Amino acid sequence: MRRRFFVEHYTDGRAELHGERAHHLIHVLRAQPGQTVELTDGQSAWLARITRVQSQRVEFELVTPMESLEPELRIRLLIGIIRFERFEWCLEKATELGIREIQPLSAARSDPRLVTAARKRKARWQKIVIAAAEQARRRTVPVVLDPVVPAQAFAAAAAESEQCWLLSERPDAPRLQRAVLDLPPRAVTLAVGPEGGWTEPERLEALRAGFQEISIGPLILRTETAALAAAALCQLLWGTMA
User: Fold this and answer.
1) What is the DSSP string of 50-70?
2) What long-range pairs does 59-62 form, CB within 8 A, spacing at least 24?
3) Superfamily the domain 74-238 falls into
4) Where in the chain is the domain with CATH 2.40.240.20?
């Protein structure tokens, strides 16, 4: 299967790849002039031919436009910061599931040391989602935002999403898969707490902002498992490709 790469833009039927990702293409994947790859600039995808290879730069000519589907349902994930090996695995898989935006949360029960360190890892996290988007052959790359406190994220999400759901362990929370909606949503926000879950003040802040508590089942899931299960359910129930 051909590899897909994200480029900044196309110019006069050509494109370029620079820096670390060009280095990976050249020295790990052994790129050579004449080979074909897939390129996307976030708007359209093309079959492209490598025309020139330098130490930190690869040049392409565009050959044929390609169909490139992207989930129409816009999912924003608000996720409490957890241990980085699990958090970064979740970033990768959330990208493969078509999530558009990921907002790390400095939640009350997040480890303060991880919250402090998270502010220095944004560049690393963006590289992870770029690689995952290329692997999944997506047309766009998710945005990973700077960490914020939950109240700030709840308010921003409620202003932009048609449906905002707070994943809850409360036994009386309605099931996500049984949600009754007048129309399929175009934009959904899923909020998932850190290890230990939401505090009561955080839960009330979400409800005041317009979130609805939902459950995805009776079992207690890890943060990253709950986030991905909820995203997969949303895509299954309301997702279409465009």
Assistant:
1) EEEEETTEEEEEEEEEE----
2) 59/14, 59/15, 59/16, 60/7, 60/14, 60/15, 60/16, 60/17, 61/13, 61/14, 62/10, 62/13, 62/14, 62/15
3) SPOUT methyltransferase, trefoil knot domain (3.40.1280.10)
4) 4-66
Rounded to an integer, what distance in angstroms lies between the CA atom of residue 144 and that of residue 133?
13
Average pLDDT over residues 65-91: 93
Rounded to an integer, what distance in angstroms lies between the CA atom of residue 221 and that of residue 209? 25
Of 21, 135, 130, 2, which is closest to residue 66 (Cα–Cα)? Answer: 2
Alpha carbon distances (Å) from 174 to 20, 164, 194? 46, 14, 21
Instruction: Tell whether pTM > 0.70.
Output: yes
CA–CA separation, 28 and 35 (whole Å): 15
- Residue 192 has a pLDDT of 97
CB 131: neighbour CB atoms within 10 A?
16
What CATH fold (topology level) applies to the domain 4-66? Answer: Ribosomal Protein L25; Chain P (2.40.240)
Residue 80 near residue 178, CB atoms below 8 Å: no
CA distances in angstroms from 67 to 135, 171, 232, 233, listed in the order given: 16, 44, 23, 25
Q: What is the tens place of the pLDDT at every residue in 173-222?
A: 888 877 767 677 889 999 999 999 999 999 999 999 999 999 988 888 99
Q: 223: how many CB neighbours lie within 10 A of its CB?
A: 24
The contacts of residue 80 (CB under 8 Å, 6+ apart) are 104, 105, 107, 109, 110, 150, 192, 193, 194, 195, 223
